[in-house]
Amino acid sequence: MSMIFERKLPIPMDVKERYPLSAELEQIVAKRACELRDIFTGKSDKLVLVIGPCSADHEDSVIDYISRLRTLQDKVQDKIFIVPRIYTNKPRTTGDGYKGMLHQPDPDAKPDMYKGIVAIRQLHMRALQETGFSCADEMLYPENYRYLSDILAYVAIGARSVENQQHRLTSSGLDVPVGMKNPTSGDLSVMMNAITAAQHKHTFIYRNWEVNSEGNPLAHAILRGYMNKHGQSLPNYHYEDLVHLCDIYAKSGLTNPALIVDTNHANSGKKYLEQVRIAKEVLHSCRHNSDINKLVKGFMIESYIEDGAQKIGEHVYGKSITDPCLGWAKTERLVLDLADLR
User: Fold this and answer.
1) Is the CB of residue 284 less than 8 Å from the CB of residue 43?
2) Whole-prediction pTM value?
3) Distance of CA 166 to CAs 136, 138, 154, 213, Å?
4) Which residues lie across from 85 on neighbouring strands?
5) Within a 10 A sphere around the Cβ of 209, how many other Cβ atoms?
6) What's the start-to-end Cα distance of the chain, in Å?
């Protein structure tokens, strides 16, 4: 066998017992869960912003960034509900490169999965303790969700995972909003099938247990753009794209039609500065079409302290080591502008 079994890792229950949430923190998570549910069910018309670094890399700079979001949230609380991104897993198209804090809690050191499990729980806990934010993470590995299941506000399923059966079935058992991205091919039927699967009940194997899920009525769409057969990035956030998705949802019979627009990735062609224009264009579409306005619940924005990205080992504080991000000054201006436009 070519795999070397390094060590057996602790199960989620053991990690949660070692690093538990206090009753006070549990109440904060529950309160935010209710607020977020109200947005996705249409009871609240606040705009959701799932916003933060492409990948969480260094704990101190991530917490610094989220602390800034806390101050900003207080200024726009009547219009906007912020869910910071703490993305601790990084999908890699070729499998090479930095795979996130779960794999490498220190980006300059070799992978250590045990330290990674502890590091991601401690980071999410620290954000909750110091800023009152329960945050978002991408569910790259469905089996690992339970390490953070008591603390997350929002879960995203990536473009390369959305067609996977285990991701869909696991999503059907979560009690937080789960965003299903369109695949990199742009085929919206794949995304809609994933949402349908996540909203239905299932019996399946999860972490060696036979489990029954009740279905997740908060599963919804994320449009992130796509790649054509020539490998070129193409957007799917324009007015016509949004009308098309409204029509698809109207025929689907799905509960709580909802859309989060990813302003980066193929929608921006990874030109991160375009995120500002894209978000404002979508809100412009919302003002001109009541169906779009009802469907669009918010945005996913890649943002950090410094503009752009750097290579691992350069050590520029608060600058992404994966995809380029919008810097803090531009982020603050964008969020304030979105509140004014809402």
Assistant:
1) no
2) 0.96
3) 20, 14, 18, 12
4) 136
5) 7
6) 57
Strand-pair category, 154-157 with 80-84? unpaired
Q: What is the pLDDT of residues 123-163, one digit of tens each?
A: 999 999 999 999 999 999 999 999 999 999 999 999 999 99
Cα(256)–Cα(181) distance, rounded to whole angstroms?
16
DSSP state of 276: H
Beta bridge partners of 171: none
Q: Which residue, 169, 171, 170, 194, is CA-closest to 181?
A: 194
How many helices (H) and strands (E) would you count in the chain? Answer: 11, 12
Pairing, β 296-302 against β 202-206? unpaired
What count of other Cβ atoms lies within 10 Å of the Cβ of residue 71?
Answer: 10
The single-letter DSSP state of residue 321 is: S
Domains and CATH numbers, the chain: 12-341 (3.20.20.70)
Distance of alpha carbon 32 from alpha carbon 153, whole angstroms: 7
What tens digit of pLDDT does each residue of 64-114 get?
999 999 999 999 999 999 999 999 988 776 667 788 889 988 888 899 999
